[in-house]
Amino acid sequence: MTQKVAIVTGAARGIGLSTTDILLAEGYRVAMVDRDGDELTQVAAARENVLAVIRDVSIPSEVEAIIAETMAWGERIDALVNNAGVADFGPIEETTFERWRRVMDTNVDGVFLMSQAAIPALKETQGAIVNIASISGLRASTLRVAYGTSKAAVIQLTKQQAAELGEYNIRANCVCPGPVKTKLSIAVHSQDIINAYHDSIPLNRYGSEREIADVIVFLLSEKASYVTGQIIASDGGFDSTGVGLP
Ligand code: NAD
């Protein structure tokens, strides 16, 4: 049987690494993309059936190279997981244009560029896209003008992709994780934010990388063959409460 090929961006650690491991266990070959070369080289060396692609998803020429290298290695693309992301929390007046752009470059441009470049290959396989947004894209909050806006854009981008690519039987869905303890969240979650999340999430805890990755892989699978354009929170119930983001 033909082995399916997935691209996972931001695969060197966190949610992307967990997604890679589940896809490998399900028989995929995985092109692991990350701009952090040291971390990516290390984790890729410990796995079989992977290609380490040390590149930046926010740069058009790098994105072209990601697709070309993946096709040269795997000859097909069945799944694209746009997971690479950066976070920067701060109030509007303290968010410089440089900080704003840094978030938009990866979180929005990266998802747009990677998806656009992968479309020809996805048409061949009738593949699927999963974009990773956040509960920060569903709710407004103080502190998240750049991050929240970027993730709201990912949500709308997913709907646009689903609307446009359905005729090729390409599905596009979006996962909105709640808080997960990763390098990204550790950098921006103060103790006040951690406490508030524990109090307001119905399941009273952070999620694990695996709990997000399982939803991503489900959406890529045949079990979700009639699901497209959906925005699915894996957040311990946070979004259902109506409580504001801390
Ligand atoms: P992480 O920092 O552990 O992993 C993100 C990876 O993306 C890193 O390895 C980083 O090097 C890579 N990356 C960043 N910018 C890149 C670029 N331009 N090109 C290539 N690689 C790049 O973070 P994580 O928590 O696993 O986050 C994964 C995704 O989940 C992100 O999109 C994030 O916004 C989203 N998310 C995370 C949380 C959370 O609480 N951790 C909550 C909601 C959403």
From TrEMBL:
Homology family: Belongs to the short-chain dehydrogenases/reductases (SDR) family.
Organism this protein belongs to: Pseudoprimorskyibacter insulae
Domain Ketoreductase, chain residue ranges per copy: 4-183
Protein name: 2-(R)-hydroxypropyl-CoM dehydrogenase
GO molecular-function term, one example from the UniProt record: 2-(R)-hydroxypropyl-CoM dehydrogenase activity
Organism superkingdom: Bacteria
Record SUPFAM superfamilies: NAD(P)-binding Rossmann-fold domains
The gene coding this protein: xecD
Annotated GO biological process: fatty acid elongation
Entry's EC annotation: 1.1.1.268
Name of the top EC class for this enzyme: oxidoreductase
PANTHER family in the record: OXIDOREDUCTASE, SHORT-CHAIN DEHYDROGENASES/REDUCTASES FAMILY MEMBER
Keyword Aminoacyl-tRNA synthetase: no
Keywords per UniProt: Oxidoreductase
